[in-house]
Design brief:
Blueprint: H1 3-17, E1 22-24, H2 26-29, E2 44-46, H3 51-64, E3 68-71, E4 88-91, E5 98-102, E6 107-111, H4 116-125, E7 128-129, H5 142-147, H6 155-158, H7 161-164, E8 165-171, E9 177-180, E10 206-213, E11 215-216, E12 220-228, H8 231-244, E13 249-256, H9 257-263, E14 280-288, H10 291-307, E15 313-316, H11 320-331, E16 342-348, H12 351-369, E17 374-378, E18 384-390, H13 395-411, H14 430-433, H15 436-449
Parallel strand pairs: 2-4, 3-4
Antiparallel strand pairs: 1-2, 5-6, 6-10, 7-11, 8-9, 8-10, 12-14, 12-15, 13-14, 13-17, 16-18, 17-18
Helix pairs in contact: 1-3, 8-10, 12-13
Bound molecules: flavin-adenine dinucleotide.
Length: 462
């Protein structure tokens, strides 16, 4: 962007949002420091205060063919919020109110810039729960969660963000405000347009508000850590918990043994609640309505699993501190950085293929980087594994490891992105998970809604 066109755009934007609604130069690029992953080289950032201002900003950009990158909490992990010098950043940070909670209707309405953590706390204040939960809860926003269709820790029980959004207000590329703020669970009147904006990573519109689904608070919560001898035992424990607990299972996470061992030994600060050295570990969480009976039932199911040799050892958390200590082992995902710079992956695949797939990835990483360089854990019950490879992060290593991790997924019907999205990072691998016809249809939708291609250009596909 030339200095002249920046100054012209700046003047037009100032007329819409005022001086305090604009950031320029270094104060925009400093945003890169907030980005969990990626870069911001943009010259201008606009922060509208309401939907009308978003609409006027986009109408202006549409008329000028000005590319726009939307920013939420900047916790995305696939370079989806990267902004080049020629792009305008549109930040939702000034649109962060929680507008209403309807306890009887079990809904909460929030602006897109509201932090996930604030939505959770507001629901709790009203005796309800907003069940989406992830480690970045106090930075990530409702708009970002919608645009990435965030998953997290309780997908098994409550689904991904898509299952928790009832209505959306979004602004299209030309400034059209699409208000689709449905509050009912059922509404089959024509196309469900909100789905277009869920998981499309800011490429089809700017989400400005949402009606979210709340659920009742449960009375019991149990968290367990189990050690298991084989992958088949993990699958069997999942089945025993799911069928034996009458639908109370809310999370089931698998940890390959070397990840548990690494995260429970120095320099990690997590104490090992169970001794190290098992082949696999599982963390599971249940949510129910009767604390005493639920605990007794869980103990019975675990006792049977121990007797059958499915589980070699198990512990149940007896306090919130113990519960957190168990989850911290799972969430200490950056520990392998002490070995070498990291590459991280978020893939999906059928449970029946997981054992062989992970063995194949581990063997290939071992061959070029040495022993114990790949670490696997994740939301196994959702078919979602996270893989951390500590073998360097230079371009050549990245290309090699991406091939190792992504290439086998096509043959088994897996996905290169389970929950983080495609952004810029995984764009080259989209054809491994989507057919040519699917990608062509995505392009048709993109052209229909954003004919000049101004929204998040180059993200998801080029
Ligand atoms: C520690 C940590 C743990 C995480 N755990 C999980 C996890 O368990 N599960 C999971 O799914 N993700 C996880 N993430 C990834 C991340 O938190 C999610 O992708 C989150 O939903 C992004 O929200 P955000 O507001 O930070 O979005 P941003 O990073 O700001 O943006 C993400 C994408 O959405 C677009 N966007 C943002 N707001 C809007 C809007 N209002 N309208 C249109 N487009 C918009 C952006 O352009 C970009 O493409 C984790 C991240 C971290 C750092």
């Amino acid at each position: 962007m030339s200095a002249e066109s920046i100054s012209e755009l700046r003047g037009d934007l100032r007329a819409i949002v005022g001086e305090q609604g604009l950031l320029t130069g270094d104060s925009v690029r400093e945003r890169a420091g907030l980005l969990f992953h990626g870069r911001v080289d943009a010259e201008l950032l606009v922060r509208p205060r309401d939907t009308n201002q978003v609409s006027r900003v986009l109408a202006l950009c549409h008329a000028r063919g000005q590319p726009v990158v939307t920013h939420g909490g900047l916790t995305g992990l696939v370079n989806g919020a990267d902004a080049a010098r020629s792009e305008l950043v549109l930040s939702l940070e000034s649109m962060n109110s929680i507008e209403r909670v309807d306890v009887a209707g079990r809904t909460l309405r929030a602006q897109a810039g509201a932090k996930l953590g604030n939505v959770q706390r507001e629901a709790e204040k009203n005796g309800m729960v907003f069940p989406l939960d992830l480690g970045a809860r106090d930075s990530a926003t409702v708009g970002g969660n919608i645009s990435t269709n965030a998953g997290g820790l309780r997908v098994l029980r409550y689904g991904m963000m898509r299952n928790l959004v009832l209505g959306i207000e979004a602004v299209l590329a030309d400034g059209t405000v699409l208000t689709s703020m449905n509050r009912m669970l059922k509404n089959n009147a024509g196309y469900d347009l909100k789905q277009l904006f869920i998981g499309s990573e800011g490429t089809l519109g700017v989400v400005t508000r949402a009606e979210l689904r709340l659920v009742s608070r449960t009375r019991s919560q149990e968290t367990l850590l189990a050690a298991l001898p084989t992958f088949d035992a993990l699958v069997e424990l999942l089945d025993r918990l799911d069928s034996g607990l009458g639908g109370q299972l809310a999370a089931f996470e698998a940890l390959w043994g070397n990840y548990y061992d690494l995260n429970t030994a120095a320099p990690a600060s997590n104490a090992p609640p169970l001794s190290r050295g098992a082949a696999f570990y599982a963390i599971a969480e249940t949510l129910g309505g009767d604390p005493e009976a639920d605990r007794a039932r869980l103990e019975a199911v675990l006792g049977e699993a121990m007797e059958a040799g499915v589980v070699s050892d198990v512990t149940l958390a007896n306090s919130e501190t113990e519960r957190r200590a168990i989850w911290n082992i799972r969430e200490d995902v950056w520990q392998p950085r002490h070995i070498a710079p990291l590459l991280t992956f978020d893939v999906s695949l059928p449970i029946e293929n997981m054992k062989a797939y992970v063995e194949q990835v581990n063997a290939a990483v071992h061959e070029f980087a040495g022993e114990n360089r790949s670490f696997v854990f994740g939301h196994m019950a959702d078919g979602n594994l996270h893989i951390v490879v500590a073998a360097g992060d230079d371009a050549a290593t990245r290309a090699r490891v991406e091939e190792i991790v992504y290439r086998p997924l096509a043959a088994i019907g897996g996905s290169v992105s389970a929950e983080h999205g495609i952004g810029l990072e995984k764009r080259a691998y989209l054809p491994l998970s989507r057919s040519a016809e699917e990608i062509a249809t995505m392009r048709t939708i993109k052209r229909a809604l954003d004919p000049k291609g101004i929204l998040n250009p180059g993200k998801v596909f080029s």
